[in-house]
Amino acid sequence: MDLNDVIKKLKVLKTRRVFVQFPEGLKNEKIQDIAKTLEKEGFDPVLCIEPTYGACDVKGDEAKRLQCDVILHIGHVDFGVKADIPVVYWEYFLDSDPLPILEKEFDKLNGYEKIGLVGSLQYINKLPEIKKYLEEKGKQVFIAEVEGVKYPGQILGCRLKAGKAIEDKVDAFLCVSAAKFYGLGLILNTSKPMLTLDVERKEITNIEHEKKRIQKIIAWNKSVFKDARRIGILTSWKKGQLVLPYSIKKYLEEKLGKEAYILAGDEITPEKIAGLKLDFLICTLCPRVGIDDSERYGIPMLNWDQIVKN
Ligand code: SF4
To answer: Is the sign of the CA dihedral 36, 42, 48, 53 positive or negative?
Structure first.
């Protein structure tokens, strides 16, 4: 889908004012160009400058308050978060070509014959040509189609089914994305090696060391939790992240004898909780905050499911 298709959809919905949610990477002239094109087509765009990291964050109430009649969600696909007004999702595939990087870095796949191919949404349309190249080089390639995920092989930071479905069949995963965020999510939940084809850094990297580093942090935080007294429960009211924290607080206080505080916000950051005296944080937000961002808070943190599994 391109901007022309988006415009057609907006016209079908008889849109007048459109609330635009978009990733931080588009917060430059590109989003201004999009806004100007929408204006020329007769729409009134409202650019939401709050960060939007995924389709978990659909700001229907905010859009309605600003009298918008449709949300345009750029860079994400629908995974079922509802709003009171229509939401048009625009995947926004990127043009960068990962194939030359694969050709240059191909030797890093030596020793792995069966490859599980996954990727982030922005490059998911490139997986078929990568599969073809790998097969021509003699590799066996697996790409999973799974229910609830729009594109074969697509993984999100919190939805890893397209990788886990083929874990038993492959020697290693190859994840096509920018940076290591997507590959890291999968490797922490499987036992197979992960090679990330990083389209921005233009290299293939084995991120096993990163998995070990995060596992050590998780193990340390689990050991610290036992003696932590004042616990902050991080809670977001984003529609696709919302977990009601009341039973967690009750459990912490009544079963474990801790002192617990529910800390709610839209996007939660270390700065927003600075000044509070807390020994430990429990994350009920995006699960990747509890994993990737825990060091930024300077307070030990675990996701709630990591505490429950302990
Ligand atoms: S919960 Fe986190 S990983 Fe999942 S879509 Fe939202 S921001 Fe992305």
So the answer is: negative
Tell me the pLDDT tens digit for each residue of 229-286: 999 999 999 999 998 999 999 999 999 999 999 999 999 999 999 999 999 999 999 9
pLDDT, tens digit, 9 for 90 and up, residues 26-70: 999 999 999 999 999 999 999 999 999 999 999 999 999 999 999
Ligand 1: nearest atom to the Cα of 289: 2
The domains found in the chain, sorted by start residue, are 3-90 (3.40.50.11840), 99-206 (3.40.50.11850), 212-309 (3.40.50.11860)
User: Is the CB of 54 inside a 6 Å radius of any atom of ligand 1?
Assistant: yes
- Residue 269: closest CA among 48, 63, 50, 49: 50
Q: Tell the residue nearest (CA) to atom 4 of ligand 1.
A: 158
Q: From atom 1 of ligand 1, which residue's Cα is the shortest distance away?
A: 286
| pTM for this model (two decimals) | 0.92
Pocket residue to mutate for ligand 1, from 283, 288, 304, most atoms within 8 A of Cβ: 288
pLDDT at 310: 59
pLDDT mean over 166-190? 95
3-state secondary structure of 18: strand
Say yes or no: CB of residue 81 within 6 Å of ligand 1: no
For the beta carbon of residue 131, count every other beta carbon within 10 angstroms. 19
CA distances from 5 to 2, 191, 266 (A): 5, 41, 31
- State whether the beta carbon of 248 lies less than 6 angstroms from ligand 1: no
- What is the whole-number distance in angstroms between the Cα of residue 146 and the centre of ligand 1? 18
